Amino acid sequence: MEVEQQNQNNREGGAQVVLCLQPSSSISIAYHPSFGPHDDLMLLEVDEKLLSDILDQKVTLRGQPNEDAVLCTPSKTYVVKFVGTSNSVLLIPPSDQFAYDCDEKDSGEMEVASVIKVAPGCMELVEVAPRLDKLKFLLSENLYSFYEASQMDVSEGVEKCDVGLYRWEDLVHRIQASDMELRSGLEALFAVEINGYWRILDEDYKDGILNMLLHNSVLNDWSFDALGEDEVVAVLVADGFPGQIARHCLQIYGSKADEGIGGSCIWRLDERRVCVHFAKRILRGGKMRLENFMEEWMKKAPEGMRATFDMLEGEVLSEKIGIETWIYAFSISTLPSTPTERFSILFKERTKWEWKDLDPFVRDLEVPGLSSEGLLLKYTRRTQPTMDAEPIFTAR
């Protein structure tokens, strides 16, 4: 490959010269007057399905200085990786002097393409799961409590401290996830926007408002399957809870049974969510004998709801101590979402797992391009002494 310095007898056509190059023909190249490293220019290889989002400027690069950059479309997240190449990749800018005509012939000048940079490689995009573990960490810095709710009215006009509080734009700046994935993450945490900040209610506050809702359901003869939103909110507000938090309570522990077009929405309490809430409260004290736990749990569960042990899948672990079975809290909600960290914690908790115990704690893991079976092959060893025996999983 011959590279020459640009001279007056050469006709510089920029990238258009290369685009007009015919098969089996060649062209000279020369150093552009501005040739150099140009670290601000990088090649990015993209899939066709991403091209429209990039051209329409619907993508953003997200990450802190100590994090690897990710590129986010409105709905997905891609890690940005540099891939080097052993071949010379020449960057030729378009000509800014004149429009180049491919049909134009001029035998008096030699056509050359001016190279402004030799690229050592390009950036590639690899789809990844959103990095949402940081979201729970940030929102847990300042939980919304009974005390804060009680101070809202008396603190009007007083400057409030916003330490540990995050607006939507703050979260977008800090969390490596697309907008759609970020909103899904907030919904999964049952976060609520209060005075412009996204908050999580602390456990005592959730327990207080749920118990008040259940108490009022008995007093007012409300059906757990048909709670009128307007009536429930009005009663809870009268009991001292903010209206926004009262509605949020229905979202945490229920689901809409009827949108109520033109009137109040109808909500149905979720039996599992309510019963699991009371199970967690009981196990806050630590490990318990299974018989004692079940007895207390049945007493705490609201009348009309049936608490069953299978509801606690992914929320507790049990172990045999002698002839007795003991149970303790071990919630999937506390585990990291990255497979490496998740399996590390699981195998620190237990060196051996039966599949029936392991499955609830790994089935939510998602790695684009890797199946659940692939995840198990990558992070675990499976042993099965006999065909009839339950498979056992250990760390790889």
Written overview of the protein:
By secondary structure, this protein is of the alpha+beta class. It folds into 4 domains: 3-128, no CATH class; 133-199, no CATH class; 203-269; 335-396, no CATH class. 32% of the residues lie in helices and 23% in strands. It is built from 14 helices and 20 strands. It has a 5-stranded mixed β-sheet, with helices on one face. A 4-stranded parallel β-sheet has the order 1-3-8-2. Helix 8 (229-238) crosses helix 9 and helix 10 crosses helix 11.
Put the structure in a nutshell.
One of its GO terms (biological process) is DNA replication. With 396 residues, this protein is of the alpha+beta class.
What topology emerges from the helices and strands here?
Layout: E1 3-5, E2 10-12, H1 15-19, E3 28-31, E4 44-45, H2 48-55, E5 60-62, E6 70-72, E7 77-91, E8 110-115, E9 117-128, H3 133-139, H4 146-151, H5 168-174, H6 179-188, E10 192-194, E11 197-199, H7 203-219, E12 227-228, H8 229-238, H9 243-253, E13 254-258, E14 266-269, H10 271-282, E15 288-289, H11 290-300, E16 316-321, E17 324-329, H12 339-349, E18 353-354, H13 355-358, H14 372-379, E19 380-383, E20 392-395
Parallel strand pairs: 1-3, 2-8, 3-8, 4-9
Antiparallel strand pairs: 5-6, 6-7, 7-9, 10-11, 12-14, 13-14, 15-17, 16-17, 18-20, 19-20
Keywords:
396 residues; alpha+beta; four-stranded parallel β-sheet; 14 helices; 20 strands; 32% helix; 23% strand; extended; Sister chromatid cohesion protein DCC1; Dcc1; DNA replication
